[in-house]
């Protein structure tokens, strides 16, 4: 049984509020008897020459070996000569798709109560290829890379996700009227994949129009797939629709079946160490990890306990207008399990 043979998963508690909210996940998983054993890794204090980053080669190997992990927020040290931690993870683990389910939380009122969409962001190229340089003084250049291979891969994932999760529609978000070559190729790849999934409705929406539609009526959307920069912006916009970064889960899909779930928010240095952080985003991210492992019973139970706790409204953290501490909120979730 899985009880005697636990699944090993990598855990990066991260910086700032990271260790506090990671502790909350560990407690909830224990209370729900989730058969997972955490292998904890922290960001190093020195640059590892093998990764050119503060992330050690050993910690990356841990994710490659376990194929599944959970990551708290990491504060990228500012300075020269090293790669950003998140960029290192994306590149080294080839995390090509960032998936963010975004749904209204019952009992937590925002302007909208019928949001139920998923953003799928291409995560390896576009404007984030790191190819920036100065041409001459006063003129700089940034190169946007779009490849057929990466576009097909993320489009495939979007349609696979839609099929696996019973979703009806995939919208490709673009600006191909201006970026004719790059976004044009992205769309061409999406169309090719769409043809293989006739049961799923496929549409193309220009990014500016998409933004307007999202704030007017987010229920118009189902699954959205898009290149890197648009995905960065739209996914945060969608987090705002449901109440903010403390609530939004995300999961990164990498080649070879890797899934690294992570909270969307940063390390919140302003409230770190004060037992004030909302662990919901990391908890719901951990739930996406359980779904990836097909531990659906555990995932459902934990998700229901989280939503119930928020809906009851008795225990809420400060960002949701409550006065509960992280530990009180966590205990309430455990009691609701
Ligand atoms: P942030 O998300 O850390 O904080 C923005 C605001 O949201 C703050 O007021 C914070 O208190 C609040 N907040 C965020 N998460 C919360 C939670 N779980 N519960 C309650 N309140 C929460 O963004 P920032 O201040 O721009 O960045 C701080 C650091 O985090 C930087 O070093 C940045 O590089 C890093 N960062 C990391 C990630 C990541 O690892 N994925 C993402 C974004 C930022």
Description:
The protein is α/β, with parallel strands linked by helices and 337 residues long. It contains ten helices and twelve strands. It has helices spanning 18-31, 57-66, 85-92, 148-164, 182-195, 207-216, 228-242, 280-292, 296-312, 326-336; strands at residues 7-12, 36-40, 68-71, 95-103, 116-122, 132-136, 139-142, 169-174, 201-206, 223-226, 249-254, 258-263. Strands 2-1-3-12-11-4-5-10-8-9 form a ten-stranded mixed sheet, with helices on both faces. Strands 6-7 form a two-stranded antiparallel sheet. Helix 8 runs antiparallel to helix 9 (296-312) and helix 9 packs across helix 10. The longest helix has 17 residues, at 148-164. The chain is globular. The two termini are 22 Å apart. The chain binds nicotinamide-adenine-dinucleotide (NAD).
List the keywords.
two-stranded antiparallel sheet; globular; binds nicotinamide-adenine-dinucleotide; single chain; 337 residues; ten-stranded mixed beta sheet; alpha/beta
**Span between termini:** 22 Å
User: Strand sequence of the main sheet, in spatial order?
Assistant: 2-1-3-12-11-4-5-10-8-9
Show unreliable segments. Answer: none
Query: So how many helices?
Result: 10
Ions, cofactors and other ligands present here are:
nicotinamide-adenine-dinucleotide
Count of individual beta strands: 12
- Percent in helix: 25-40%
Gross geometry: globular
Major sheet size, sense and barrel closure: 10 strands, mixed
Helix and strand sequence? EHEHEHEEEEHEHEHEHEEHHH
What average pLDDT do the residues reach?
94
Family: Belongs to the isocitrate and isopropylmalate dehydrogenases family.
Organism: Escallonia rubra
GO cellular component, one term: mitochondrion
Protein name: Isopropylmalate dehydrogenase-like domain-containing protein
């Amino acid at each position: 049984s899985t009880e005697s043979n636990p699944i090993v998963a990598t855990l990066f508690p991260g910086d700032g509020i990271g260790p506090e909210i990671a502790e909350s996940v560990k407690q909830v998983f224990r209370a729900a008897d989730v058969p997972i054993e955490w292998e904890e890794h922290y960001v190093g204090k020195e640059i590892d020459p093998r990764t050119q980053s503060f992330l050690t080669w050993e910690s990356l190997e841990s994710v490659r070996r376990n194929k599944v992990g959970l990551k708290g927020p990491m504060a990228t040290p500012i300075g020269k000569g090293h790669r950003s931690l998140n960029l290192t993870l994306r590149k080294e683990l080839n995390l090509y798709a960032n998936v963010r389910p975004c749904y209204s939380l019952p009992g937590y009122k925002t302007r909208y109560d019928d949001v139920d969409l998923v953003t799928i962001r291409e995560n390896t190229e576009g404007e984030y290829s790191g190819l920036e340089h100065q041409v001459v003084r006063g003129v700089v250049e940034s190169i946007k890379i779009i490849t057929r291979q990466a576009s097909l891969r993320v489009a495939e994932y979007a349609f696979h996700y839609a099929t696996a999760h019973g979703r009806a529609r995939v919208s490709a978000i673009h600006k191909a009227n201006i970026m004719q070559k790059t976004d044009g190729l992205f769309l061409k790849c999406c169309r090719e994949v769409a043809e293989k999934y006739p049961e799923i409705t496929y549409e193309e929406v220009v990014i500016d129009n998409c933004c307007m539609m999202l704030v007017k009526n987010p229920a118009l959307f189902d699954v959205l797939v898009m290149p890197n920069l648009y995905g960065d912006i739209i996914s945060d916009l969608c987090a705002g629709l449901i109440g903010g970064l403390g609530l939004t889960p995300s999961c990164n899909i990498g080649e070879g079946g890797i899934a690294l779930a992570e909270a969307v928010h940063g390390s919140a240095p302003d409230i770190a160490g004060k037992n004030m952080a909302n662990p919901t985003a990391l908890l719901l991210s951990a739930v996406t990890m359980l779904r990836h492992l097909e531990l659906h019973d555990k995932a459902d139970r934990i998700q229901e306990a989280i939503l119930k706790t928020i809906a009851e409204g008795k225990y809420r953290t400060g960002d949701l207008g409550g006065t509960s501490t992280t530990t009180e909120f966590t205990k309430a979730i455990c009691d609701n399990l």
